[in-house]
Amino acid sequence: MPSHNADIAAVFEEIANLLEIEGANPFRIRAYRNAVQAIGALSTEAYVLLENKEDLTELPGIGRDLAGKIEEIIATGHCALLDRLQTELPPAVTELLKVPGLGPKRVRHLYHDLDVQTVEQLYGAAREGRIRALSGFGEKTELNILQAIEAHTDQKGRFKLAVAAQYAEPLRAFLADVPGVKEAIVAGSYRRMRETVGDLDIVVTAASGSPVMERFTGYEEVAEILAAGSTRASVVLKCGLQVDLRVVADESYGAALHYFTGSKAHNVAVRYIAQKKGLKVNEYGVFRGKNRIAGETEESVYRAAGLSFIPPELRENRGEIDVARTRKLPRLVELCDLRGDLHTHTKATDGHNTLREMALAGKSHGLEYIAVTDHSRGLRVTRGLDPLRLKRQCDEIDALNEELEGITLLKGIEVDILEDGTLDLPDHVLAQLDLVVGAVHSKFELPRARQTERILRAMEHPHFTVLAHPNGRLIPQRPPYDIDMPRIIREAGRRGCFLELNAQPERLDLFDIYCQMAKEEGVLVSINSDAHSTFDFANLRFGIGQARRGWLEKQDVLNTRSLEELRILIARTMQRPNTCGPYKRQTKPQIRSGKNVR
DNA sequence: GCCGTTTTCGGCCCGACTGTTTTCAGTCG
C-alpha cells in the first residue's frame, strides 16, 4: 500500500521537529513545515500524481529535494533523513516540544544535559529540582514546567467552535463594556471559523489609560494569568480555554485585527508581499519607512499590499493571495442565502420535537422548506422507521403541508447504507419520497477499499439523493472513516448526486478542502443542520462557516435554490422524469492558481 | 530547503513578554 499524503506530511513534520531540536537552519525547518501544509492541502494523493507522471515540484513549497523525498517515502515507506535523525535523537524527544514554554533550544538542553527524553522524565527532573541548576533555566522556569505538565495532562485540547463560542461571546461583551473601549472582537481561528479552536485571540481598541487589562485579568472566569503586560495579556479560563488579549489604538484596529486573525501562514505571505513593495506590516499598521500608510481597517492593509479584501475564512495561504491579486475572489455563501434544510429529525425517531414544531422553527429561521429525514429501521437505537411508519409520517406531512403557510415539508429519509452498499428500505418505498439522504452508521472500521465501494454502490442507487456526513467523524471522539474521498466526489459528479455539509458542531463534514474539491467537480453541496430539535437550526451558521472555508459560493450550494428549482435538480438525480430541462453543470472554477505565496 | 519582473545566490515576517540575565535569549502568537 503506498503512503498516503497524511503519512508523508507526518514524516516531514517529524523531520522539522528533530531538525529544530538539532538547531538546523531555521529556513530549512520552515521549508519542511511549509511542505506539511502543502501536502495537507492536496486534493489528490501524491502517489496518484506520480502515477500520472505529474511534476511534484509544481506544488507550492516543493522543490527538487522535497519532491525526491516524497517519491522516496512512497516507494520505500521510509525517509533516510528521518531514519538518520532518529539515530541521533530519540523520537520521543519531540513530544517535549508540546509542553508550553519549551521550545527547541530548551529541549536540546534538557536532553543533552539531563538526558530527559520524555514528558515523564521531564516531570521527574522538575520535581527533583534538577532543572533549575541548568544554565539559562531558573527556579521560575522549573515551576512553570511543572505547572505546564500538570495542566497539560488534564487539558482537553482544542475546543469545538460552538463550545468556544459559548465562552467567547460573553467575554467579548464584557470587554466591550469597559470604559474607554471602542471595539472588541474575537479574532484568530475562531474568526476564521475553524472547526476547533485552540485558544481565543481578542483584539480591543481603547484609549490609553483604559482599565481594560485590569478588567480582563479580573474577569470572574479567569483561573490563571499566564502573562500580563501593558498591551497584551494571556489567561486561562476555568474551562481550560486560553485567551490572549491585545489592546491597540484606534488607528491600528485593522492591522491588529488582520494580524491576530491569522492564519500565521497567511500573515507571513502578506507581509512578504508588502516587503517586496518596500513596506513593513505589523500589528500597528502598514509602514513605508516611519510613515504609516494604512492600518485603520483590514481593507486598507490589503489595499496597501495590492490585494482585494480576503474574507477571514479563506486566510490559510491555500491560494487565496494569488486570487486576491487578480481581484477574482469568490463571493462566499452567507447564512441568509439558505432557503431550506434537507436533513432534520423528529420525535418519530431520535429527534425531540414534532413535525409541526420543526416546521415552525425552520420557518422562524427564515427557511422556506425543510426535509424530514428520520432514520430508517436498521438504526434500532433510534427506533428507525419501517415502511409502515414511514408511510404514516408521509401522510402526516401531506396533511400538515395543506395547513402550513410559508414553509413546506419534504418527505425524506436518512436511510442506512448497509455494509454491502445496499439501502435499508425497499426501492418502491424510497420511490415514494421527495428525497433520499443516505448515511453510514455502522461498520466504521472497514478497510478503505471496501468502505469506499460501499458508499459508491449506495450512490448508484436510482433514488439516492444526498450523501450525509460523508466522512463520519465526530469531534473529538471519532476520526473520519477511511475512504477515498476524492474518488467519491468525482463519482458524485458523474452520478449527479449531492454531498452534505453537516452543520452539527461535532461533525462539520464535508471538510473544507473537500468542499473545494466538490466545487471543482461541479458537485453541489447541501448545508444541513441534521437538527434533532428546534434549537439545532442555529447550527447552520457553523455549516456556513465551513462552507466559506471551502470557497463555496451561493450557486455551489444546493439548498440556496428555490423549492421549485430544488425539485428539478432532485428529479434529475433520482432519475425521474421532469419537464424543465437538464441541470446545466458549471464549468470548473480555477481556485488553486499556481503556487502559494511564501 | 525554496525561490526569482532586483536575484541561480542571498534572501527568507514581526513584535511582546518572561526569566535569567546585567543587555538578551527563548518562546509565543
Automatic annotation (TrEMBL):
Molecular-function GO term, any one: DNA binding
Record-listed E.C. numbers: 2.7.7.7, 4.2.99.18
CDD domains: NT_POLXc, PHP_PolX
Domain DNA-directed DNA polymerase X: 3-316
Cofactor: Mg(2+)
Subcellular location: Cytoplasm
Record-given protein name: DNA polymerase beta
Cellular component terms per the entry's GO annotation: cytosol
Cited Pfam families: DNA_pol_B_thumb, HHH_5, HHH_8, PHP
Polymerase/histidinol phosphatase N-terminal domain ranges (all copies): 340-419
PANTHER family per record: PHOSPHATASE YCDX-RELATED
Reaction catalysis annotation: a 5'-end 2'-deoxyribose-2'-deoxyribonucleotide-DNA = (2E,4S)-4-hydroxypenten-2-al-5-phosphate + a 5'-end 5'-phospho-2'-deoxyribonucleoside-DNA + H(+); DNA(n) + a 2'-deoxyribonucleoside 5'-triphosphate = DNA(n+1) + diphosphate; 2'-deoxyribonucleotide-(2'-deoxyribose 5'-phosphate)-2'-deoxyribonucleotide-DNA = a 3'-end 2'-deoxyribonucleotide-(2,3-dehydro-2,3-deoxyribose 5'-phosphate)-DNA + a 5'-end 5'-phospho-2'-deoxyribonucleoside-DNA + H(+)
Keywords attached to this entry: DNA damage, DNA repair, DNA replication, DNA synthesis, DNA-directed DNA polymerase, Methylation, Nucleotidyltransferase, Sodium, Transferase, Ubl conjugation
Residues of the Helix-hairpin-helix DNA-binding motif class domain: 54-73, 94-113, 129-148
